[in-house]
C-alpha cells in the first residue's frame, strides 16, 4: 500500500463526501468517511479533520491503523477510532458518518431504538419488505471513542448496517464506499419517513 492507493481512496471519499454535503448531511466540517485499504494489518483512509466536506480533494485523507491513529502525516477525524472499530467488528469496507436532522430527532424520540416494518425500502439494507421488524439501534453519545465503540458493539443488530448516536448523528457501513452510500441514503429515507409519521 503506497501513496497512490491512499490518493485513489481519497478521490473516492471526496466524491462521496461532496454528495452527502450537497444533501445538507455534512454541514460545515461535520461528518467523516472512511474506506478500508487493508485487513491485515487493518488500515483505513479517513477524511482529514477540520475540512469542509463539500470541498475535499483526493489529498484530504489520512491513513490510520486499527486503533484509528494516524500512520504518517495528517490529522484524521477525531472519530477515526470508531471507524476502525466498526470495520473490524462488521467486516465493512467503508463507513459513513453524517449529521442529519432526522437521525438526531428520531434518536431523541425513540431512545430505545427505531423500529421499521412493512416498507419496501427495507430491501435497500437487505431485509424483506414485509413480515419482519428491523430495529435501528440508538446509543448514547460519548467523546470517548472506546466507550462509544463498546456501546455500538453491544447494541448493533446485524440485520441493520447502521446505528444512531443520540444527539449526534448516524453511522452506516457497507462492503464498499458505494454500498455504504446506498445504505446511508436508505436509512436516512427511513428516518425521514419515521420523523414525518410520528
Automatic annotation (TrEMBL):
<protein>
    <recommendedName>
        <fullName>Methylthioribulose-1-phosphate dehydratase</fullName>
        <ecNumber>4.2.1.109</ecNumber>
    </recommendedName>
</protein>
<keyword id="KW-0479">Metal-binding</keyword>
<comment type="pathway">
    <text>Amino-acid biosynthesis; L-methionine biosynthesis via salvage pathway; L-methionine from S-methyl-5-thio-alpha-D-ribose 1-phosphate: step 2/6.</text>
</comment>
<comment type="function">
    <text>Catalyzes the dehydration of methylthioribulose-1-phosphate (MTRu-1-P) into 2,3-diketo-5-methylthiopentyl-1-phosphate (DK-MTP-1-P).</text>
</comment>
<comment type="similarity">
    <text>Belongs to the aldolase class II family. MtnB subfamily.</text>
</comment>
<dbReference type="InterPro" id="IPR036409">
    <property type="entry name" value="Aldolase_II/adducin_N_sf"/>
</dbReference>
<dbReference type="Pfam" id="PF00596">
    <property type="entry name" value="Aldolase_II"/>
</dbReference>
<feature type="binding site">
    <location>
        <position position="97"/>
    </location>
    <ligand>
        <name>Zn(2+)</name>
    </ligand>
</feature>
<dbReference type="InterPro" id="IPR017714">
    <property type="entry name" value="MethylthioRu-1-P_deHdtase_MtnB"/>
</dbReference>
<dbReference type="GO" id="GO:0019509">
    <property type="term" value="P:L-methionine salvage from methylthioadenosine"/>
</dbReference>
<feature type="domain" description="Class II aldolase/adducin N-terminal">
    <location>
        <begin position="11"/>
        <end position="195"/>
    </location>
</feature>
<feature type="binding site">
    <location>
        <position position="99"/>
    </location>
    <ligand>
        <name>Zn(2+)</name>
    </ligand>
</feature>
<keyword id="KW-0486">Methionine biosynthesis</keyword>
<keyword id="KW-0862">Zinc</keyword>
<dbReference type="InterPro" id="IPR001303">
    <property type="entry name" value="Aldolase_II/adducin_N"/>
</dbReference>
<dbReference type="GO" id="GO:0005737">
    <property type="term" value="C:cytoplasm"/>
</dbReference>
<keyword id="KW-0028">Amino-acid biosynthesis</keyword>
<dbReference type="GO" id="GO:0046570">
    <property type="term" value="F:methylthioribulose 1-phosphate dehydratase activity"/>
</dbReference>
<keyword id="KW-0456">Lyase</keyword>
<dbReference type="GO" id="GO:0008270">
    <property type="term" value="F:zinc ion binding"/>
</dbReference>
Amino acid at each position: 500500500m503506497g501513496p497512490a492507493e491512499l490518493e485513489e481512496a481519497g478521490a473516492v471519499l471526496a466524491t462521496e463526501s461532496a454528495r452527502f454535503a450537497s444533501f445538507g448531511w455534512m454541514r460545515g466540517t461535520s461528518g467523516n468517511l472512511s474506506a478500508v485499504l487493508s485487513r491485515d494489518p487493518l488500515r483505513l483512509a479517513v477524511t482529514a479533520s477540520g475540512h469542509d466536506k463539500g470541498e475535499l480533494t483526493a489529498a484530504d485523507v489520512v491513513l490510520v491503523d486499527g486503533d484509528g491513529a494516524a500512520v504518517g502525516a495528517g490529522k484524521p477525524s477525531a472519530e477515526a477510532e470508531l471507524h476502525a472499530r466498526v470495520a473490524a467488528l462488521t467486516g465493512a469496507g467503508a463507513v459513513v458518518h453524517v449529521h442529519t436532522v432526522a437521525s438526531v430527532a428520531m434518536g431523541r424520540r425513540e431512545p430505545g431504538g427505531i423500529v421499521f416494518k412493512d416498507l419496501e425500502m427495507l430491501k435497500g439494507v437487505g431485509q424483506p419488505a414485509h413480515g419482519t421488524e428491523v430495529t435501528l439501534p440508538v446509543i448514547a453519545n460519548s467523546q470517548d471513542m472506546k466507550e462509544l465503540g463498546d456501546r455500538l458493539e453491544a447494541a448493533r443488530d446485524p440485520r441493520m448496517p447502521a446505528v444512531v448516536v443520540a444527539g449526534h448523528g448516524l453511522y452506516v457501513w457497507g462492503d464498499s464506499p458505494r454500498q455504504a452510500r446506498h445504505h446511508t441514503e436508505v436509512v436516512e429515507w427511513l428516518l425521514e419517513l419515521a420523523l414525518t409519521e410520528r
